[in-house]
Write a structure and sequence with these properties.
about 180 residues, mainly alpha, about 65% helix
Amino acid sequence: MMELRFPQSDICNLAVRYEAEMGERDRHLTGTITRDVFPSYVHKGFLTKNEFLTVCSWKTPRSKPRCESNEASLIQEVSALAMTTESERIRIQIWTLLAGVKWPTASVFLHFAFSDRYPILDYRALWSLMTKVPVQYTFPFWSVYTDFCCGLARSAGVSMRMLDQALWKYSEIHQGK
């Protein structure tokens, strides 16, 4: 069961605060990802190794050596399949075949490639939805989380990106207090 820890009416303000308080590194990478990487991915239907590494460095900089170990051809095949498959399970789980990519990073690829369809799976977002981080992510958990976030974004009249920013920011402000 998921439930938002704060009023839906706070989503926009939290998202604005997220943007305003973002560090320079994250601002640069977010701009590169949204302006260059994902439009290119959608146009070509696959990611290059450099594009893949840019996204990984945004979500999981500590995994850089593992992410770099992936062959360019495997990145291209995985990203092409994720873009074209009709299977929701394959679309998310195919990314985890790549070294350094677990469910949270896989969700980032979907979040930016399929706008307003997928949330980012993150411990901060889960906390903001009063949900514990599972010991191991599963497709049924992902499916429930995605459906809940889609419904919440629709109900609040915001984009999935805005919802993601609000969930993250609320946790950053309040978690552990």
